[in-house]
Design goal:
This protein is mainly beta and about 400 residues long. The protein folds into 2 domains: about 100 residues, Immunoglobulins (Immunoglobulin-like, Sandwich); about 300 residues, YVTN repeat-like/Quinoprotein amine dehydrogenase (Methylamine Dehydrogenase, Chain H, 7 Propeller). It has 1 helix and 37 strands. The protein has a 4-stranded antiparallel beta sheet with strand order 4-3-2-29, with no helix packed on it. The radius of gyration is 23 Å and the shape is globular.
Length: about 400
């Protein structure tokens, strides 16, 4: 094939790919038994993933490559591969009711609340084995792990308490009285405070994470479900489901600085990694609101499945491709990049010598081109994080492969 024609063909292929660059949300639709995948940048649903019955809880691995979905009626957990947007594994343990999920900062442990048996269980994410289950308060709901991974906090809905779990030995080290119907917890990025929403009253409790005592509260005027805190810790976002709005709270003085109208019965709530977009699942009208956190306004409302929930963080930082186009076939010859994803250093393996290749970014701009007299292997380094496309051609044909630098 003429090389210029080949390059033009590749450019066309790359330009037709729709990349969801590190801004992808996974929305559990509890009454539809599926998960809607949203490209946050374009505000569109790019995939709908069938799951087990009644998906509710959600957690994303730190590298963004996996999403865990808790099913609150059969106690199973689905693992989604974010590169392919498919369920790759379904596992179960002594969960009973996997209502809410949280993951450790290193991604090795998944914390699962079981509101039917009043336990929190810890799962090894590599083996899917249950490491331990510990009794907490009555009907545990939301769970969160601090940024250092040393403590986990569980909101006990009918116990009016928050349980504090030491993750080094999985022991409950404190039980803290809070408001009526504690539903969710959010830990300040520096680990100093824990915020607790309450389904049964109109306050947000503030816990000192050093002394494990409640040190104050914020009156927000009505009941709340999920909540989350900005990456810099300056703003707290609270879903007020009876008022159909999100309250924005200044954490330095605990004042409400904005109330943002959203859809009906806002439930789950999650921020993009840079904190500029807030997504809200509206379980009463089957939509997701996208909020610009700089202007505190809704910039998009996206229809999803029935009764979207999402107790936990549901935004992935792993880039996925929204396309049915697979790698260009080249008679199944062996050519690959590994490890993939990588930290910037990876190897290329080819079936023969003198393979020609080049690598482009998602804009189609060339970043690396092969040298002459290339052997069957090559070592490559790319500094900037993101997704790239490897283009290779041999005597047997052309291959296109996605490379992720995390």
């Amino acid at each position: 094939m003429n090389k210029n024609l080949l390059l033009n063909a590749i450019a066309i292929i790359v330009s037709t790919l729709n990349f969801a660059n590190a801004q992808t949300a996974y929305i559990p639709n509890s009454a539809s038994n599926n998960v809607s995948v949203i490209n946050i940048n374009t505000g569109t649903v790019i995939a709908t993933i069938p799951t087990q019955i009644y998906p509710s809880g959600v957690a994303v691995s730190p590298d963004g490559t996996k999403v865990y979905i808790g099913h609150s009626t059969n106690g199973k957990i689905s693992e989604i591969n974010t590169a392919t947007n498919t369920v790759t594994t379904v596992f179960s343990g002594t969960f009973g009711n996997a209502k809410a999920l949280a993951i450790s900062p290193d991604g090795t442990k998944l914390y699962v609340t079981n509101s039917s048996s009043d336990f929190v269980c810890i799962v090894n994410t590599s083996t899917y084995a249950v490491i331990d289950c510990k009794p907490v308060g009555y009907a545990p709901k939301g769970v969160a792990v601090n940024s250092s991974g040393t403590m986990a906090y569980v909101a006990n809905l009918f116990g009016q308490t928050v349980s504090v779990l030491n993750t080094s030995n999985n022991t409950v080290v404190a039980t803290i009285p809070v408001g009526y119907g504690p539903f969710d917890v959010a830990v300040h990025p520096n680990g100093s405070k824990v915020y607790v929403s309450n389904d049964g009253d109109s306050i947000i409790n503030i816990i000192d994470a050093v002394s494990n005592t409640a040190i104050g509260s914020i009156n927000i005027g009505s009941s709340s479900l999920c909540l989350t805190i900005s990456p810099d810790g300056t703003k707290l976002y609270v879903a007020k489901y009876t008022d159909n709005e999100i309250d924005v709270i200044n954490t330095s003085n605990n004042s409400i600085i904005a109330s943002i109208p959203v859809g009906a019965v806002p439930y789950g709530i999650s921020l993009t990694p840079d904190g500029t977009r807030l997504l809200v699942t509206n379980s009463g009208d089957n939509t997701v609101s996208i909020i610009n956190t700089i202007t505190n306004t809704v910039i998009n409302t996206i229809p999803v499945g029935n009764t979207p929930q999402g107790i936990g963080k549901f935004i992935s930082t792993f880039p996925t491709i929204n396309t049915s186009l697979s790698e260009t076939p080249a008679n199944n010859f062996e050519a690959l990049a590994y490890p993939n994803p990588s930290d910037g250093q990876f190897n290329l393996k080819f079936p023969e010598e003198n393979i020609e290749y080049f690598i482009t970014n998602i804009l189609g701009q060339e970043v690396i081109r092969s040298n002459s007299n290339l052997k069957t292997t090559a070592k490559i380094q790319i500094v900037e994080k993101g997704m790239y496309i490897l283009h290779m051609w041999t005597s047997k044909g052309l291959r296109i492969e996605k490379i992720v630098i995390k």
